[in-house]
Amino acid sequence: MILFTPVLLISCIIIFVLLYLFINTIDDSKKWLNIILAILITPILYFYLWYPISTIFLPYHHHKQFNSSEWSEKPGLRYEMIDNMIETDFLTGKSKEDVSKLLGKVQWLSWNDANKNFDPNVWNYGLGLIPGAFEDIKEDVEITFKNNKVTLVKLYQANYTFEVKKEETNKKLDSINARFNTK
Predict the structure, then answer these.
(1) Which residues make beta-bridge pairs with 119?
(2) Which of 45, 160, 167, 168 is spaced 20 to 30 A from 145 at the CA atom?
(3) Bigger pLDDT: 172 or 95?
(4) Average pLDDT, stretch 8-23?
(5) Nearest to 158 by CA among 128, 134, 183
(6) Measuring CA to CA, which residue among 36, 33, 42, 40 is closest to residue 11?
(7) DSSP H helical segments within the chain, as ranges?
(8) Rounded CA separation 172/169 (Å)
(9) d(CA 172, CA 38)
(10) How far apart are CA 120 and CA 148, in angstroms?
(11) Is the CA virtual torsion 8, 5, 74, 111 positive or negative?
(12) What is the model's pTM?
């Protein structure tokens, strides 16, 4: 079943108009045939060209209702549930114990510059990388507690750097290999 959304309709209209204008440059004599061709070819171009390319390169993702078991079992897909949690104020007013039961053990605490220590009232959970072909941005959620109750839930983004570990070398083995390679 196809869900007709405004993006789908606008995209199809744009593709239709561009296709119709292109077909008119080829054969301007039979306009009714050009319209029929454009109508028939538009869905093919949309579903086999535009949609796959847009889902690969645009950072769009699906939105889901919060589910505690999915949150724990599939941490790479948490970004699909976080918008629902923030929009509905799902966590606001919940205690640390309730949040811990719903989201699992806190992943890390935020740093408090004033105290020069980690703040036990600001919990963080990783949401994963934003989907897309060339994305290197990860999202995290910060949950702030006051008097053991959630007062603020906010998203923040950070660049993710992929580190390449250098292989440790054995100097003695390297010197032996160097002797054999020079002969």
Answers:
(1) 110
(2) 160
(3) 95
(4) 80
(5) 128
(6) 42
(7) 6-26, 31-45, 51-57, 68-73, 79-87, 96-103, 171-182
(8) 9
(9) 71
(10) 10
(11) positive
(12) 0.58
